[in-house]
Every structure is written in structure tokens, then in C-alpha cells.
Design the sequence.
């Protein structure tokens, strides 16, 4: 790279830069894929024997109808007369039921531990690598949440615990207003909780080509940012003082960032949500500095920041699809629209919507086929129905209900029922 600085060759510089990032990435992944285990690592207990372990839940528990998953940081091994210090992360599978545990809780359980292993089937999901990228090298199993003994609740001021509790409470309110499939979809749309969505319903969204709408993505964050901004602007316009003496638009755009950060942690900080919040923040920083912001550069900056914090995120399917889809929208959509420059009005708007769907589909088709062993083009048509009903309708109504619940419970229930009706209408059309 240093030599290329003194040479007038753009292509050589790009080639060497790509090689440098490749080597840097490989070196960053080595501690995850080829770790050196400490003498007190929980990995050494994966010998088939049963052990009593104390561990702290360090990630939001994932519950569904058939059980759940808990990621824990091992603390102590309980022996008959003494306790021994432990280190390392554990993935604990819960066979059935749902517990009330939150991030930061200290629990005790008995289990046999095993090392993650793949089946060796060609084309299978690399489960061992997936867990290694999350620094999990041992897994355990308990039959139900009752097999875990709660030793100590987490700190009340712990950010992760506070967000977990708030997400659980909001999910419960959504479930009370919408107890069926509509409630499960609304929890997925608003909170990123996919546990209540049945396999049949997920397959319906996949076959229709609109499964992207179920996971919280940049589209959801963009819609909410647009909604926050215009709601605050409408409220601020009621004050003549603010209209005359304050730069409302710039101030309110910056004011959306704390709200987006709050929603980021509330929804579980998925890669697509992190990417979207970073890009919006970059755009707002450019606005404050009065600098032009290039969308592709903002996209690459978000990717580098995420990978700098967690290099294995590159192999996360949600990370890949999120960045590839947006790259396709930014780069391929103008190319697809170039032959239709003479079209204007509503026809151009509908055509742009179609080309955006086509660009995102084309950019993600290969990884979707590789990971899910299927691909479909029906999403090009289905997006015309699903995106307005769920993206612009149910998401806005549902989030308005979550905010309005602190003011009027009856009004919030009415908004949730209206959002559920949109979800139900979408399912009937699909």
C-alpha cells in the first residue's frame, strides 16, 4: 500500500487495498475460528458428564412455542464442597416452555455439555462456524425453564436488561390486543421477536418473496424516522416562537437520532437496524457540517464500522442480505431506470418501485439461493401489496400504539386492532 501511494495507478492501488482488507479480515477471524482456550474454560467440561453451572445471561433470551435459547457467560462450576471459577460462553437450549429471565440474571442449572458439530451433509448450514463467530464453543440442554434456579436478578440500570423488560412488556400488550397470528407478526415487525411466528407463516412469506418485511430492516427504520420527523414538525409548528426563531427542520432531523438509537436497542440491534441507524446518522452529520453525503460511501462506512467491532458479522446472513439489497437499490436502480427517462408522473413512481424491488432481488438472489435453497420472483408483484399494508400501515400504526399506550390505553388498543386488520388483509391477499 505504501508503494502504491507513490505510483499513478488506480487499479493497482484498488487491487492491493482489496488484498490488504482480505488479509486483515482473515487475521481478525482467527481468534474466533482457532481459539486458544484458557485452563478454566467451560469447553473442558464437554466430556459427557453432568455438571452444575452458574452463569449470567448476556444476551436477550430467544423464546418460542417449542422452547428457547439462552446465551450465558459461565461464572462458576459447583462441586460437592467448593466452587471453581469458569470462563467462556454457553448456548443453553430449553426444551419447552418460556421463562421470565432477562439479560444480566444469574442462574444455576445442571446439564451435560457438548462441542458444536456439523453433520457433514453437503450444503448444510455451518452451525459450528456460526456459534464460533459468537464465541460459543459449548452447548447444553435443560428440559424447561423450571430446571434453572434464579440466584440473582440483574442490575435494574443495566441497559440490556431495561430494553429486554420493556420489549417483553410491549410484546405482552400487543399479544393482549392481537392474540393470533396478527399479534405474532406485529411483534416481529415492531420488536424483532420472531418467536411467535409459526413455521407455516414464515414459509408463506418466503414463498411469496416478502420475508424481508418480517425482520426489522432499514426500511422499517427509515419509515419510523420519517414518521418521527413529521410528527415532531407538526407539533412544533403550533408554536409561533419556534417557527420564527429556530431552524426547525435541521433541529428535528438531529432530534430523531436519539429516538432511533432507542429503537435500535429496543429491537435487539440486528445488523440491518444498526446499518440503517448508522447511515441516517452519517447523513445527518453531513447535513450539520453542510457537506454532501454519498449514499454508497455511507453504506461502506456503516459496513466497516460494524465489521471493525465484530469481524465475524460478515458471515451473518442478515448482514449480507441487508448490505447487498441496499447496494443493489443504490447502484442498480438508476441503471434499470435509465431507458425510461421519458416516463413521468404516477407511472414513473410505480415503475421506480418495481425497479427497486428488481434491483434488491437481483443483488440478493445468489446468497438467498445458497442459504435457503430457493428463490422466487413473486416478490416483485407482492411488494406492491405487502410494503404499503405492512411497511407504511401496520408499522406506523403499531409504533404509534406503543408510544400512545402511556397516554391512552384504549386509544393504543384501537390502533393495534387497526394494524392487526392490515396484517390480516395482507395474509388474505397473499
Sequence:
Amino acid at each position: 500500500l505504501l508503494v502504491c501511494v507513490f505510483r499513478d495507478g488506480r487499479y493497482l492501488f484498488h487491487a492491493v487495498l482489496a488484498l490488504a482488507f482480505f488479509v486483515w479480515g482473515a487475521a481478525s477471524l482467527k481468534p474466533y475460528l482457532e481459539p486458544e482456550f484458557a485452563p478454566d474454560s467451560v469447553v473442558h467440561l464437554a466430556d459427557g458428564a453432568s455438571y452444575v453451572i452458574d452463569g449470567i445471561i448476556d444476551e436477550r433470551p430467544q423464546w418460542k412455542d417449542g422452547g428457547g435459547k439462552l446465551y450465558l457467560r459461565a461464572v462458576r462450576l459447583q462441586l460437592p464442597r467448593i466452587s471453581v471459577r469458569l470462563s467462556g460462553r454457553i448456548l443453553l437450549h430449553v426444551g419447552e416452555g418460556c421463562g421470565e429471565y432477562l439479560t444480566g440474571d444469574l442462574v444455576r442449572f445442571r446439564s451435560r455439555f457438548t462441542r458444536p458439530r456439523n453433520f457433514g451433509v453437503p450444503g448444510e448450514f455451518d452451525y459450528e462456524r456460526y456459534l464460533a463467530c459468537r464465541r460459543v464453543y459449548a452447548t447444553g440442554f435443560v428440559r424447561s425453564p423450571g430446571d434453572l434456579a434464579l440466584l440473582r436478578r440483574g442490575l435494574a440500570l443495566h441497559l440490556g436488561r431495561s430494553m429486554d423488560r420493556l420489549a417483553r412488556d410491549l410484546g405482552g400488550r400487543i399479544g393482549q390486543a392481537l392474540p393470533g397470528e396478527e399479534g405474532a407478526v406485529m411483534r416481529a415487525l415492531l420488536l424483532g421477536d420472531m418467536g411467535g411466528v409459526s413455521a407455516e407463516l414464515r414459509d408463506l412469506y418466503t414463498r411469496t418473496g416478502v420475508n424481508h418485511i418480517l425482520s426489522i430492516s432499514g426500511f422499517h427504520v427509515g419509515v419510523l424516522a420519517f414518521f418521527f420527523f413529521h410528527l415532531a414538525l407538526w407539533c412544533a409548528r403550533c408554536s409561533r416562537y419556534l417557527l420564527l426563531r429556530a431552524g426547525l427542520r435541521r433541529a428535528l432531523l438531529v432530534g430523531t437520532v436519539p429516538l432511533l438509537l432507542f429503537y435500535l436497542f429496543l429491537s435487539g440491534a440486528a445488523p440491518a437496524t444498526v446499518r440503517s441507524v448508522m447511515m441516517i446518522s452519517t447523513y445527518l452529520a453531513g447535513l450539520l457540517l453542510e457537506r454532501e453525503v454519498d449514499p454508497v460511501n455511507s453504506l461502506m462506512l456503516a459496513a466497516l464500522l460494524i465489521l471493525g467491532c465484530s469481524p465475524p458479522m460478515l458471515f451473518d446472513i442478515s448482514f449480507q442480505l441487508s448490505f447487498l439489497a441496499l447496494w443493489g437499490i443504490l447502484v442498480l436502480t438508476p441503471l434499470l431506470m435509465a431507458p425510461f427517462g421519458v416516463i413521468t408522473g404516477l407511472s414513473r413512481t410505480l415503475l421506480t418501485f418495481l425497479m427497486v424491488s428488481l434491483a434488491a432481488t437481483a443483488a440478493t438472489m445468489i446468497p438467498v439461493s445458497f442459504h435457503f435453497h430457493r428463490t422466487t420472483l413473486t416478490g416483485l408483484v407482492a411488494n406492491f401489496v405487502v410494503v404499503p399494508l405492512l411497511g407504511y400501515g401496520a408499522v406506523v400504526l403499531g409504533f404509534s400504539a406503543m408510544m400512545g399506550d402511556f397516554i391512552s390505553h384504549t386509544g393504543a388498543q384501537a390502533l393495534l386492532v387497526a394494524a392487526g386488520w392490515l396484517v390480516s388483509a395482507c395474509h388474505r391477499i397473499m
The first strand starts at residue 50 and ends at 57. Residues 345-372 form the longest helix (28 residues). The CA atoms of residues 422 and 428 lie 10 Å apart.
